[in-house]
Amino acid sequence: MLQSRLIVIDLAIALLTGGGGVAGAWLLRRYTSLSALNLYGLAVISVVALGAVVAARWWTAVIVLLPAAAPGVAGAAAGRRWRISDLGAGEELRNHELTRRWIWQPAPARPDQGRVYLRGQGELVRERPWPSAIAYVSMTSERDRGPRLPLGDGQHVVMFGATGAGKTTTARRLIAGRTLAQHAALLVLDQKGDEEDVEQMKLLAAAAGVPFILFDSQDHATDRWQPLWGTPDGVAARCVEPVRQSEPYYYDALRRHLDIVCKVLHASDRWPPSVPFLIDCCQPLRYPSILAIAEQLSVQRAQLIRRATEHGRYVHSPQGLKDLAGGANRLEVALALAGRQLVTPRVTGDGETVAVRLVEALRQRAVVMWRTHADTMPDEAAALSVLALADLHDAAEQAGAPWTLLLDEFGAVIKMAAQRGVAILQRARSHGGQVVVITQSAADIEALSAQPGLLASLTDNFSGIVAHRQTAPESRDWLAKLMGTRALWQQTQATDGSRHAGRGSARRVREFRIGSDVFSALRRGQAVIYTPFAGDPAIANIEPFVLPQQTPARIDPTGRRHACEIAVHAENALPDLAPTPGEENHEGLRNQEIDPEEL
């Protein structure tokens, strides 16, 4: 009787220790990089030892060895079954199993100090900590644990969300972190012209202790902008870019004409020209004055004089007059930006002619804002967007200072300035910039630009994706695919009528990390935040960033030249120079009438 009880107790202990062996094999598989093959040797030793004492009829030893051998045998049996299952799963689970190591091999070194483990349903999880080299701003009240967005050169972020979903709150928190923590200049291209946005940018400038500059063609108190600076070639290329986008027919003729005009102005010390002055100079009826200035240059400029003279033959021709007159008119529309005051230099108290140049504004870490009024003036908004992006592209390379560009209503920007918008994203890292893009729907970019595949190519440039509420099925599906999938075991059960028949199977399937329907259920202020280099997407309640009420530094309209301004050539129009002897044909050009219908 006692012997029977001992056997029962021994078997119960063996079952318990065997269960412990299975649990150990489960932990080994889930949370370590050790292979189940490590358990096979222990199981073989245990079975051989137990078989030897049974063969010798040493029952006392059997009672002792049975609980001791059970963990190794049970763990090896369970580990082998799971190993075969993982190898049969294919894809990353098979590769993970094949890379497991023997116990005497060193653990794999992970540069990112991350962790790889298995979760329920065979999901392989690659847990990566936030890279120590990348600064961040927490988007929630959980400063160290909540979802984050990256800060730094080239760490571009795109934000999607319907009107009223909370995109502006998210963007303000991000740009505040970049401006205050990394002392970067901020440039805002605002398509809506919202007064609240202006006030918030003023508060941010005041909090950072930097100047605030506002470019607004509809505001008489606007600061003055000097987008024409640099070499003659660079100025000619930059100022005709808005015409290239809207009127490619006039681009080639106007580009060549402006190249000569800018070189003559530069050689005659009329540099840099203000926008009104350059518009006046590029009028074909003013070319005799340009040519007269060229002919007064020194002999070292003989080649330029010859080019200007030869170009005059084209300007004098009916076709040249027609093309250049039409191009000059469109250039005036593009550069005057619905009001010359924005691009007309101001006169300081001591008589100096000055205007803001982005190179100096970037070096001063200023907050610079353009209001384009795209709803009421779409053509002018398009020209201003193109010119601002072209100016920033050149200024960032020369300034050598960190900056952030906020592109609101990015779909409209891409429609107006697709090439420049893409160039800014692709080259900002080398120029010290971070771009924050805001658009209502993922479908806007391709729909407004009429460039299929543009959104997918742009996505590779983004280090952070923020998705607020999206209702369009196409946008929700695209975001779900963007944020990736995970592989799981899916169980199926056979049924017999209305009951399970007790039979089933398992297959490997993929499901979205964030389901498509999640994006339509987000509340105001909620967003899905995804940083591809730092793990899975997560839903966050965005914490608004509150700035103290302060007044920022502004440029005094009548004061001395500001640190963000440069001296600009004072003339607003060319002198009406009489033609030199032998050049009466220039006078015929002045008196030639132009049929408005031909333009």
Note down, in words, how this protein is organized.
- By secondary structure, this protein is α/β, with parallel strands linked by helices.
- The chain has three domains: 119 residues, no CATH class; 272 residues, P-loop containing nucleotide triphosphate hydrolases (Rossmann fold), CATH 3.40.50.300; 141 residues, no CATH class.
- Helix content is 47%, strand content 17%.
- It has 21 helices and 18 strands.
- The longest helix has 31 residues.
- It is elongated, with a radius of gyration of 36 Å.
- The C terminus is likely disordered.
Oligomer: single chain
CATH class of the largest domain: Alpha Beta
How would you classify the helix and strand content by structural class? Answer: alpha/beta
Radius of gyration: 36 Å
Output the CATH homologous superfamily of the largest domain.
P-loop containing nucleotide triphosphate hydrolases
Descriptive labels:
alpha/beta, elongated, 18 strands, nine-stranded mixed β-sheet, 3 domains, Rossmann fold, three-stranded antiparallel β-sheet, 599 residues
Task: Give the gist of this structure.
This protein is an alpha/beta fold and 599 residues long.
Question: How is the topology of this model organized?
Answer:
Elements: H1 2-31, H2 37-55, H3 59-89, H4 91-98, E1 115-119, E2 123-127, E3 135-138, E4 148-151, E5 156-160, H5 167-181, E6 185-190, H6 195-208, E7 212-216, H7 232-239, H8 241-246, H9 248-267, H10 275-282, H11 287-295, H12 302-316, H13 318-336, E8 346-347, E9 353-356, H14 358-363, E10 367-371, H15 378-399, E11 403-407, H16 410-427, E12 433-439, H17 444-449, H18 454-459, E13 462-467, H19 473-482, E14 485-496, E15 499-512, H20 516-520, E16 526-530, E17 538-541, E18 565-567, H21 585-591
Parallel strand pairs: 5-12, 5-13, 6-10, 6-11, 7-10, 11-12
Antiparallel strand pairs: 1-2, 3-4, 8-9, 9-18, 13-16, 14-15, 16-17
Helix pairs in contact: 1-3, 2-3, 3-4, 5-6, 7-9, 9-11, 9-12, 9-13, 10-13, 11-12, 15-16
